[in-house]
């Protein structure tokens, strides 16, 4: 009887651990991500351009801006995207390239052709040159293990594009895989004391939790490719095993 009760508790612990691992995995995994990398150059004589964007989503514009003026007065420089003002570009110094990064909200972006324009005000006779790269990510590791640092807005946008049924099926797959993996690890370490097994089972949750914590603490989120998810989970398990 006591053995049956211990077994039931072990099953509940396995299912609960699988639930936590599945939730963390679903939040930090991106099964398919198509990166965007486009370049534009805008000048005083050619202050707008058209760039083709494959999908409506928030974008990062990473730029280097050089402003020249005959006097000490510095013009106000702003960026418009499809006629919508999205950012004021600071001009701290003249004649020196100044870099920055802007998050263009999804509401300003359309799938297809997008018009990007620089607007200046003040400092008569001033000129500018802006060189920029447009991405849908903040940082990227394109080779295995693949990972992407993206804006929180992109995560919310991707979630809004997913149906409730699709999200439920996706989580179901993560839950099944998580319970299976935890069950296998539990059997491999069944000779260990119960507290040690709990620590080992919690290892992957700790490493994936650290990845998720970055997204909670910053306006950015880390997406892991499936093979990277497995590598991070394995790292958590191995770290816990070596620590005991």
Number of domains: 2
The CA-CA distance between the termini, in Å, is 31 Å
Number of DSSP strands?
11
Structural class: alpha+beta
Summarize model confidence as the mean pLDDT: 89
Describe the secondary structure blueprint for this structure.
Blueprint: H1 2-28, E1 37-43, E2 48-53, E3 59-68, E4 76-81, E5 84-89, E6 98-104, E7 112-121, E8 127-135, E9 139-141, E10 147-151, H2 152-160, H3 164-188, H4 194-217, E11 220-224, H5 226-243
Antiparallel strand pairs: 1-8, 2-7, 3-6, 3-8, 4-5, 4-7, 9-10, 10-11
Question: In a nutshell, what does this entry contain?
Answer:
With 244 residues, this protein is of the alpha+beta class.
Write a structural description.
This protein is α+β, with helices and mostly antiparallel strands and 244 residues long. The chain folds into two domains: 133 residues, no CATH class; 100 residues, Jelly Rolls (Sandwich). The protein is 42% helix and 30% strand. The protein is built from five helices and eleven strands, in the order αββββββββββαααβα. A four-stranded antiparallel beta sheet has the order 1-8-3-6, with no helix packed on it. A four-stranded antiparallel beta sheet has the order 2-7-4-5, with no helix packed on it. A hairpin with a 5-residue loop joins strand 9 and strand 10. Helix 1 packs across helix 3 and helix 1 packs parallel to helix 4. The longest helix has 27 residues. It is elongated and about 80 Å long.
């Amino acid at each position: 009887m006591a053995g049956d009760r211990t077994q039931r508790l072990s099953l509940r612990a396995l299912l609960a651990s699988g639930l936590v691992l599945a939730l963390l995995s679903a939040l930090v995994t991106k099964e398919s991500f198509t990166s965007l990398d486009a370049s534009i150059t805008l000048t005083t004589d050619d202050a707008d351009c058209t760039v083709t964007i494959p999908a409506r989503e928030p974008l990062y514009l990473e730029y280097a801006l050089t402003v020249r003026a005959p006097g000490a007065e510095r013009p106000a420089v702003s960026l418009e995207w499809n006629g919508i003002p999205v950012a004021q570009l600071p001009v701290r110094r003249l004649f020196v390239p100044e870099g920055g990064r802007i998050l263009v909200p999804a509401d300003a972006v359309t799938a297809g052709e997008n018009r990007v324009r620089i607007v200046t005000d003040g400092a008569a006779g001033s000129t500018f040159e802006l060189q920029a790269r447009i991405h849908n990510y903040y940082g990227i590791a394109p080779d295995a293990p693949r990972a992407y640092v993206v804006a929180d807005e992109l995560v919310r946008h991707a979630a809004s594009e997913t149906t409730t049924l699709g999200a439920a099926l996706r989580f179901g797959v993560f839950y099944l895989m998580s319970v299976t993996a935890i069950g296998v690890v539990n059997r491999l370490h069944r000779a260990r004391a119960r507290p040690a097994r709990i620590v080992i089972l919690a290892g992957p949750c700790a490493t994936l939790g650290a990845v998720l914590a970055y997204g909670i603490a910053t306006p950015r989120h880390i997406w892991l490719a499936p093979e990277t998810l497995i590598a991070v989970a394995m790292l958590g398990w191995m770290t816990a095993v070596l620590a005991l």
